[in-house]
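name: query_chain
kind: protein
chains: 1
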Amino acid sequence: MKVLVTGGAGFIGSAVIRHLIRDTHHRVISLDKLTYAGNLESLSCVEKSSSYEFEHADICDYTQLDELFKKHRPDAIMHLAAESHVDRSIDGPGEFIQTNIVGTYHLLEAARAHWQTLGDSGKAAFRFHHISTDEVYGDLEDPKALFREDTPYAPSSPYSASKAGSDHLVRAWGRTFGLPIVVTNCSNNYGPFHFPEKLIPLVILNALRGKPLPVYGKGTQVRDWLFVEDHARALVKVVTEGAVGETYNIGGHNEKQNIEVVKAVCGLLDELRPSAHAGITKYEELITFVKDRPGHDVRYAIDASKIQRELGWVPQETFETGLRKTVEWYLANEDWWQSVLDGSYQGQRLGLG
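structure:
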């Protein structure tokens, strides 16, 4: 199968591509606009593979997309290209509307035009897999409740609202035009190659540099943490075996308060790379509570029983094993994250943390 992965140079997209090239016989076309979050160094291990090809393109440019579909004629689309950082969506929601909603519309139209050129067997085998987030469901007030595939949407941030809009578009194209779609909604991802504006890599890198570890509010927000390589395996399972028109929630079965996560990272760093910063004996001493962000959801939690029951997927990593692998990766790959911090991966300096 030839798979077109949008957002292929991003955190989850690159994990999907590494899994596809390393563990399957599928061919991959990686499409990425290479915004700040796109990093081709995350794909350096597969770039010489005969099964891999990169296309520098913008999903908001229909003409580019149409040309790429005619050139590559993919059998499946895995749509991960998105603006995804909540804080950035609060500061500048326009880019989120443009990429996540308008871009998804253009991609759907280009995919539909391509799909209509296929024969009956090609049409039946084709898949448009839209990868989304559990944040579209909003906040869970009941401490025992879980997000199910039929949970009503109630997005809280410009980011989650834009992803909710894209989810609705994809399902509408399936219902109205017959495009063979599948949708997945995942919990918080973490792991190697994660852009350091997100919580876990930000804590790791700030701690190593002796900088404050910012925690919103009291750090009591609860998230379900999913190791990115487990997520990649789930996504490939869905695009190859998922039923047309279905939605699958993907979670790691690891509910943790943010403050628990931060302290767990600190504990691993204390063990693996003890602090050499003056006056700091344990990294927890760097924790700094900051004003909570507007509209911050208190709790997310995924019911992932459907994908386990119907497709046989379960996460291979616990939070403890996945977090250790993540911290060890950042300690062993300073060149990768230093190039992000100093901006050399894109020729610009980024003042993260």
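note: The CA atoms of residues 5 and 78 lie 5 Å apart.
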